[in-house]
Amino acid sequence: MNPRNTSALGLLEDPISNHSTAFSDLDRSRLGLRGLLPYAVESPEQQARRAYAAYGDQPSDLARHINLRALQDNNETLFYRLLRDHVEEMLPIVYTPTVAEACQHFSRIYRRPRGLFVAYPDREHLREILRNRPHRDVDVIVVTDGQRILGIGDQGIGGMGIPIGKLSLYTALGGIDPARTLPIVLDVGTDNPQLLADPVYLGWRHPRIDGEDYDAFIEQFVAAVEAELPGTLLQWEDFATPHALPILERYRDRLLTFNDDIQGTAAVAMAALTAGCRISGTPLTEQRVVMLGAGSAGIGVCEQIVRAMTAAGLSEQAARGNIYVVDIHGLLTTDRTDLDPAQRLLAHDPGDVPATTDKPPALADVVAAVHPTALLGLSTATGAFTEQIVRAMAGHCPRPIIMPLSNPTSRSEAAPQNLLDWTDGRALIATGSPFPPVQYAGREVPIAQCNNVYVFPGIGLGVTAVHATRVSDAMMTAAAEAVAGCVDAHAAVPALLPERTRLQETATAVARAAARAAVADALAPKLDDEQIDQAVDATSWKAVYQDLEPHS
């Protein structure tokens, strides 16, 4: 007699294989599980109802997040069944904004390992670490170094909550097989003094490495991924601005990779802007855009708008002339010496906007002079879109498009209720964090959340389905157009993005569009549209229990 039934226990301890109380009587006998589970056999529907009741009993959003993570670590099929059934309710719990709090408390709420922890002191063992991954075949990696977690900054190893949450949505919405996903945190230390002083912090207690040492470590990591997991989609997540764009530029033509904070944010913002153009009746080429925030995400959005404007017929010079970027010091102008190369491409001549002081024009100066039709924010500057600024904009624009995109909710540039009040209900709004519908003039106005979840699950599904070798700008543009195409521009109260109840449908549309763009650019094997659609459908994983064979 085996003193420990390791094969049966292994099934119950593996969240991919575990059916828990849904194992049938026959399976319990066949797989050596009899007596290891309560006697009752539940259907998946009964399991989901019981799990949802337990979720509802939790006292706070963080407790609900912990509850769902525990379920995910126990039974992934049930977790994804529950998440898909309640996606609109649970999306803010699994991901933004609640995941920010989970990252802050990561070391305290840590229960079971998930993914890979790649620490700088282990840099000579990176291929060994990747070989220790839980599952051999991987379609999607999400990696972070934890330095710029949402709007809350350096969370060190706590940033692992982001890849875990993000990959949950790749599966729930994009249909990526959870057994083929891999969350990774690069533990390069932390400059957060609270974490360094925290006795329960689980990461490497060391100031962040930077400069040449950091770049060399990233290169070692990428080389290890290329060697151990060639052809896997590598998504960079929540890297600080000084690293995010250089990493993307260094590797985007070398392997299948993208940065969601730059390219995903840009694509979904572009989708909302495109929908806003259709609703307002003002074509994209006539839009005057003011962006508050000159970090990697803000610059990425602006470059996506430039590409879309040039595709619509404008010259690149004219497109860049329609976009005004403002940072903490004021308008980006060519006489400033503090701009990086990407920012300098969007800088205006100093005389384009008159300044009221000896400093570069502030946001209010730019709005007053430019009369923008679209005002976007990726600044994490709470309340930066003031009543004065918004009223000035609305005075020159019948349907102002206003998009306070910063995360989390506490860092939003404006509240939707105020934006509607200050524009007499005329504003077309998309936010970065979730806001409930707003009441205005006796009607309920839905507030679109400009969340990258509209784009990245479909990108993952599309590139996986057609075996794409790169993620191109054309694929992201196609994704933006696909999202905008799912918006009902003629609704009685139109929104700038599809309803969250249509997220899975939108992900499929994005996957097909991105896959077509990959094939068109010869970045994937040649397939016709019908073959692409079939490949996307065949690749999409379903939250259904699979038959299991007994372990020998």
From TrEMBL:
All copies of domain Malic enzyme N-terminal, residue ranges: 72-252
Cofactor binding mode and count: Divalent metal cations. Prefers magnesium or manganese.
Limits of the Malic enzyme NAD-binding domain: 262-519
One BP term from GO: malate metabolic process
Reported cofactor(s): Mn(2+); Mg(2+)
Single Gene Ontology MF annotation: metal ion binding
Protein name: Putative malate oxidoreductase [NAD]
